[in-house]
Amino acid sequence: MKNGKIIVIAAPSGCGKSTIIKALFDEENASELDLRFSISATTREPRPGEKEGVNYYFMTEEAFRDAIVEGGFLEYEEVYPGRFYGTLRNEVDRIIGEGHNVLLDIDVNGALGVKKIYGERALTIFVRPPSVDELRRRLEARGTETPDVIDQRIDRAEYELSRSPMFDRVVVNDELDEAVRQTRNLVDGFVSL
Ligand code: ADP
Ligand code: 5GP
After folding, report:
1. What's CA 58's distance to the chain center, in Å?
2. Ligand positioned closest to the Cα atom of 78
3. How buried is 127 (Cβ within 10 angstroms: 0-12 exposed, 13-18 middle, 19+ buried)?
4. Which ligand is nearest to the CA of 113?
5. Would you say 101 and 33 are in contact if contact means Cβ atoms under 8 Å apart?
């Protein structure tokens, strides 16, 4: 097994990507994957319970723009109007430099950008909801966004879903345990290559 692999998981917001990633890391045999989560930078506000340097590095837009100019990002996107998200080059280099595999939880465009940079060294996984109606129900049930923001996320989801064929693998998150099992198998197979 050779480490330094990059696993990129992308999905429209609300598809269950964070839930699947958390389950992957919480599994008993998670350490076998030797995976580390790459913490992104964002200009959005922290949600209740989110912590600086754990979920994200929370930045002002000014600091984010400075980091762009300094070449600090491997990729970045304005995922929603006025809300920037980016993968910090240092974060990924550090994890790979320490001999681990790295997991990126980023948006669809960012994922395809990372695949372009790393090619065969990266595995891109797209998580789909069973349907757009079910996606809306999950976003409403999560209760972390206002109705306006939910509408914005659904609009974007429709665009993102159209890009799923460009990913290496697609997992449908209908029954959670099954989606976690499939994701685990894909990651396991890739890091064992
Ligand atoms: P994302 O990280 O993709 O934005 P989350 O992991 O926050 O999405 O999931 C969105 C909501 O859907 C959460 O409330 C989560 O508990 C719920 N959820 C996730 N997977 C499933 C599933 N398979 N069936 C039903 N609800 C789910
Ligand atoms: P949220 O606000 O729900 O945490 O994230 C919104 C979207 O931004 C998700 O699709 C998430 O994967 C994506 N995202 C998080 N970090 C990054 C990043 O570093 N780069 C890109 N391109 N997208 C990101």
Report:
1. 16
2. 2
3. buried
4. 2
5. yes
Ligand 2 atom nearest to CA at 44: 2
- Is residue 106 within 8 Å of 85, Cβ to Cβ? yes
Six-digit token string for 24: 């992957």
Q: How far is the C-alpha of 139 from the C-alpha of 154, rounded, in Å? A: 9
d(CA 40, CA 77): 11
pLDDT tens for the chain, 193 residues long, are 578 999 999 999 899 999 999 999 999 889 999 999 999 999 999 999 999 999 999 999 999 999 999 999 999 999 888 999 999 999 999 999 999 999 999 999 999 999 999 999 999 999 999 999 999 999 999 998 899 999 999 999 999 999 999 999 999 999 999 999 999 999 999 999 8
